[in-house]
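pasting for the record
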Amino acid sequence: MVDRPIVIVGAGMGGLATALRLAHRGKKVIVLEKTDEVGGRNRSVSVNGCKFDGGPTLVMMLDPFRKLFADVGEELDDHLELTLCDPGYRVFYADGSRIEGTTNRERMRRQITEMTGGREADAYDRLMADLKDLYDTSIPMFVRRNFDSPLDFFGPKQLQAVIKHGMLGNLGKRIDRYFQDPRLRMLFSFQTMYLGLSPYRAPWVYATLAYMEYGEGIWYPKGGVTEIAIAMAGLAEKRGAEIRLNAEVEQISGATVRIKGGDVIEASAIVVNADLPYAQRELMKAPGKKRRYSCSAYLMSIDYAGSLPSLLHHNVFFGPDFAENLQAVFTDLTLPKDPSFYAAISSRTDPVKAPSGHENLYVLVPCPNLHRPWSTQDACDLQESVFERLEKEAGFARDKVEGMKTFTPVDWRDTLNLEYGAAFGLSHDLFQSALFRPNNRSKTNPNVYFVGASTVPGNGMPMVLISAELVEQRLLSS
């Protein structure tokens, strides 16, 4: 009998981590990737001589990264040169005030004391203690495990932990109970935007994201975040995995994978790293389900001929009315009038990313997904808002923009197969989290498994690497 391979559809972070894990176990693995590079959302972008990460630009929660490499007999630090960004980022408020997020507790206390006139520093200490306790409880109990029945989730220990920590409470409202200053409320709640989710629609358990930043720090791998995918792909191939680029899958039926152009592969199992809603509808021809999606994002990768010294590697700009911004993006599905956004210049840490005298300026603006149609005017409006703010806060000059590439909600949909251009996949609201998130094994085709942001445990690179752990366990136990 022919030894059928495990076929992995998609060479995003989840697909590559799964391929590496299975190949290390001696499994025959074939990875099929639609595009001409590995990494999925972690793609590379070039504008003139400037180099960018086209998706995630920072690394948090190193444990899943270290565990992946350790599980295959490697050391993470032998393959990636990681730098702690300290401060993690500089925050620009609309009133002209600023603060720098850091893991240095005393420095944070001093900044909060200066910002609030001596108030609120004690609230910061209480928050950090509560977040560490929440993190230490929730990750092993609710993230690093497969749920096979509701009893796995609603057992006595789990319920006790949920009640003790108030895990299902509203994150935004809970942060409001710690701080009176609206700037601090924004500072410790906006992290849910990494999931494409409003803090006022997020369960308290996602406050662990703030702990990842302020308790463990923000890291940058030399060469960019894309280097992580390249390292995983190289190690997987070294262990015998075959990675085929420009190999677009058009159909999954039973244990068969059909590649566009006619090639057919009979598999022992199929692991789908393409985004789950797209894969179910387009590849498996399964009936669509009504689901809720994250917001989208408008990206600008800019070759800037000059210097922007007031910007750090990572920067966050809050608009004058954060609540209105959230309402526009997540509820009204309109463009925010004065949007909050993220800006990065990775050449601050990695000088080879931009030619001498240039800055590689990356801007991400959260915006509605394609439940609201996107237009060219939308891009113009967001660009105008961002440039006006950068002119005011950072000495930005439009005539120094020597090149720019953009990525819109339409591109998220058409290039990366993300439903409604939802840049962060399925929403992480309460009823699409943990037990309620789509399972990593198909209910309609037992040959098919899922890995990535829209299955368990969720979005973000650490969660996607844990997703690979969970699907490996699922495969080996089936």
